Amino acid sequence: MRKRNKDIFWAVIVIAIAIGILGIAFGVIESPSIRLGWSLVLGVIALSSLIKLNWFGVFILSAIIAHINAVPLGLTSVWPVYFAAILLAIGFQTITSRFTKKGPKIHIYNDLEFGKRKNASSGQTLHGEKIYIENNFSEAAKYVQSTNLESARIENNFGSLRVYFDQATFAHNSHVIVDNNFGKTTLYFPRNVNIDNQLQATFGGVDEKGDYNFDENNVTIILSGDASFGNVDVIII
């Protein structure tokens, strides 16, 4: 399925779920069989998220299932369920990401002047063959100036993160992994690379902007990961 069609597919799914929840909330849909049908569909999607260790998909979808079945479950309020689901997702995502990350972790700091490019001497840039960037509940911009970048892992939770790779030199078949949850991650790449975009979206979106010409002499960057309840923009500059 092409990325554009996949984004439309997930958009339709989100709209359908929203209509279903509203229908149940206003008493339009009260049939136990319809509730069961919705629960089974969401359960299957949640299971697919579990296979990928996408905890935000697992717990948020589970919270929606609990919302749909609030009356049979005896829930007087669904908001604590959603709040607990978010906290559980953050906790499990943090734990599992520590076991799946490869390479040393590089500690980085929030850019005090968001949107203004920093030079190398400012201490705001990243170097090394393997880097890790994490952003939680904040707005930040990071600038990669590695001379032989082999891999980069980017995790953004409930925040807005911009990562500039336009001043980096990539090793052949470099791997950039993005884990975006309830936020927006924007990646900037130079034109002199080939990008193999394998990013997936779960109740989110992946957009590509800018044009570049494929050249077999250019290094190839493998871009993978997931956008869950958020958006990842890939921009060629």
What would you say this structure looks like, in words?
By secondary structure, this protein is of the alpha/beta class. Helices cover 35% and strands 31% of the residues. It folds into two domains: 96 residues, no CATH class; 134 residues, no CATH class. It is built from five helices and twelve strands. Helix 2 runs antiparallel to helix 3 and helix 3 packs antiparallel against helix 5. The radius of gyration is 20 Å and the shape is elongated. The two termini are 27 Å apart.
List the helices and strands and how they pair.
Blueprint: H1 3-25, H2 32-51, H3 55-68, H4 70-73, H5 79-100, E1 125-126, E2 130-136, E3 139-144, E4 149-157, E5 160-164, E6 170-181, E7 184-189, E8 194-197, E9 200-202, E10 205-209, E11 220-228, E12 231-236
Parallel strand pairs: 1-3, 2-4, 3-5, 4-6, 5-7, 6-11, 7-12, 8-11, 9-11, 10-12
